[in-house]
């Protein structure tokens, strides 16, 4: 039996996933899922793990297709800086990478090779093509999500941010967990479609489908840029006081009985 | 053009996903991912959203293939109760489902129909085929993960639990976010393969693949039962003091340069 | 030697504390401490542990001077309800009060008699003189602060509350930890001076002094009522987007050397 | 009227507080409060804010009596290092101290002069008399407690620490909030009596009294040193699996009625 090359497999998967996502989306819409969380008034940006370990060749964490991400992120940054929107970068690094002593790698070392991410190496630094500027903040995180173990939530809450625009990698790891946490903690997650990467076939598409169905809005770069370009200067914004109203399902939970009860 | 039925599509997807996951797993292994977090010594069980809204026909949240989950969960509970292992159930419900006033649905109402989950209805109750007993604890959660907004972490920490055995639904939603959080906060996530459900084609398989690659160990029911059956009584256990050692990647982050630098 | 009665001791303490707090406040003002966090635009109320165990005679947790608190809280509730301001009550209770098995009392059972607070007793219920109404939310908490293990923060964040008006008991326990957490997590803590109680001599005064110096504003009931009476209906409010500006200390940290260096 | 000097006032307060704490402690003991949380088996140390801003003359945050703290902390560190016990230091600092732009000072800038604590100044560094060594970890925190916004809890959980030995300053601020959080999150707080400082009269005594009554054990330096000197090497320890059993109050909450009901 001849095995497909990775490229052939990805092409087949692309075709099939289109159909699968169509069926899945129909099911979700019918049930009242896949709503739009929408943009708020007072956003911040977070670029997940766009450090050299993820963006440059030769590291166990190297991702695919990073050049496209870099280009999209540059455009987001230019638009955000013009309005004074706060920009965060994360990098996933550890003070102690010796697993024979108490260390800050936690259980993640038991799943993935975080011992290759010491805090003070070249690999830990944000890719200089999108280097932080001015008041940009670099968060050294220890887990997948940008929230646990960092002061991101403290910053977002005290500055009454209502929207978190998310880019970076990886789709199945740090980007997804960050989007889930953002929604859970009260920040509208907007994921920039062209600015999210990963390593293995199908993984970006699937995770963006799941996220868009349940946790945040996956939006084209052009829309995100338009939002940033047309918003007022950040200093003049006030947050949307509550979530957007939605068309609700016609289901009276208190007065229905299950079909099979 | 003739469109495939859902069943035909799922059959095609099943075949293709097997190949895709094989390629993905090889890539992960090569890079040092997809390690085993392993079982600890002092587990707790959490059954995610096995309430009527998910397990019975006729609700917007109804899942597929629930009978198999119920059966697997009954077996897990029997084994866990024989050893005094703590058992949690979650149900995702809200005190205030009127979105025109301040309410506890948060931003999740902006993505999925949580207005159909009032706290005091039939649908909110745990399926009586796996009804809580004795000191089992039912957590009323508001978000996908079982951690934010509940006292699960407080219980796990003070009782020095080291392992969280996870079942329930949905794979792409509450189960995955719970597994990610469990790993982040320091509890070994063990997912019972036969006991996890969802709603749309491919979504269980894909999420279990992602979780197993990065966040927790997806294990067959038989292995989980064997672990529970052969552990000492819970009251005699002490937690594993630290994560299991792993075979580490041969990569010296401080003395390498990127291929493309 | 004749020992003072408790009343005599409290009278002496009252006189001395006035002097001590004057000296302390001067020291704080000189250094730039004891600033005003100020009222925001979009408040919520939280009444800490005004359940029968704290408000009625005969329980290990019974507090002193509760009648005054009840009266003040009734006034706060009347003013808050007229504007649609969300009201929370906490009660500190446990599902499992048997410390010989895994339980939800945590380490707090190792300091105070939380075994006397089972979740389903008379003592756990909010005092019926200030009974919850309508959409008021009762939070069953397990720790001192109203934040860990509850969904309070999720509610405050998603509804963009900016101010947390705090009453109840005890000053040194649940009220103080709640005020500290509120400030940490980004909510302006306003403590209603006449509505905070405790059990032993001097403890209310000292804790309100500490809180006002570092964590939140202790304000007279009349001021809090005036704020609520003059604010717009809650549904028309938008949160203050950022903390109030303050007069800052004249100290250049980057260009000073220590006196003793 | 002649006003007392600060020294005279402190002398009077010392005498009166002794009586007040005796009365308070009797009340607490009678009710079943002021129990001993006790030492666990697997400790970590945290030195709160022993950076130059707190330990050296000439800064708005300068504390009193710091030399005694330094001496005690040196002894704790020597004993802890001999056993391989993990040591944390916190320093309270900010990346952005310009309050006219979005910044990481949060609401705390609205109460105390945190604008004098930029991250990269002399004042932010740990006092070199107790300089960090080897694998010691310095946490840059933004709030009072060492927990929110840092990865302390992630470290403690994954390494199954059961005890947190706490020193530093200030008693009414960062030390107290850290002790409260440690207990809440499941770590036995042990406060080293001789190693805790603050700024104004009476504040250390009062806060240690409150903490010892409700949140953690205040222990003499000699006892803490003895514990460290007699424990096994850290690498050989396993955590205590559950809180210590306590003598419980004789109160049946389900079958009592209030005195005033």
From TrEMBL, chains A, B, C, D:
The keyword Hydrolase appears for this protein: yes
Span of domain Isochorismatase-like: 44-218
Keywords: Hydrolase
InterPro entries: Isochorismatase-like_dom, Isochorismatase-like_hydrls, Isochorismatase-like_sf
Superkingdom of source: Bacteria
Record SUPFAM superfamilies: Isochorismatase-like hydrolases
Protein name: Isochorismatase family protein
Organism in which the protein naturally occurs: Citricoccus muralis
């Amino acid at each position: 039996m001849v095995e497909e090359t990775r490229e052939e497999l990805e092409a087949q998967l692309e075709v099939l996933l289109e159909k699968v996502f169509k069926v899945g989306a129909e099911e979700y819409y019918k049930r009242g899922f896949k709503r739009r969380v929408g943009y708020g008034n007072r956003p911040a940006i977070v670029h997940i793990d766009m450090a050299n370990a993820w963006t440059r060749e030769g590291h166990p964490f190297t991702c695919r297709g990073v050049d496209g991400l870099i280009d999209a992120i540059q455009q987001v940054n230019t638009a955000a800086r013009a309005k004074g929107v706060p920009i965060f970068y994360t990098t996933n690094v550890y003070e102690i990478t010796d697993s024979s002593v108490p260390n800050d790698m936690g259980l993640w070392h038991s799943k993935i090779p975080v011992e290759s991410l010491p805090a003070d190496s070249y690999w830990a630094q944000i890719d200089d093509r999108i280097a932080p500027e001015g008041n940009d903040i670099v968060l050294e995180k220890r887990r997948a999500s940008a929230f646990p173990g960092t002061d991101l939530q403290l910053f977002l809450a005290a500055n009454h941010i209502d929207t978190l625009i998310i880019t970076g990698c990886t789709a199945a790891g740090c980007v997804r967990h960050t989007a889930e946490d953002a929604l859970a903690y009260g920040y509208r997650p907007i994921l920039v479609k062209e600015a999210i990467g990963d390593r293995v076939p199908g993984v970006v598409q699937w995770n963006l489908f799941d996220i868009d169905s349940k946790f945040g809005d996956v939006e084209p770069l052009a829309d995100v840029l338009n939002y940033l370009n047309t918003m007022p200067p950040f200093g003049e914004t006030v947050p949307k006081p509550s979530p957007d109203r939605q068309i609700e399902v016609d289901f009276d939970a208190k007065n229905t009985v299950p079909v099979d009860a």
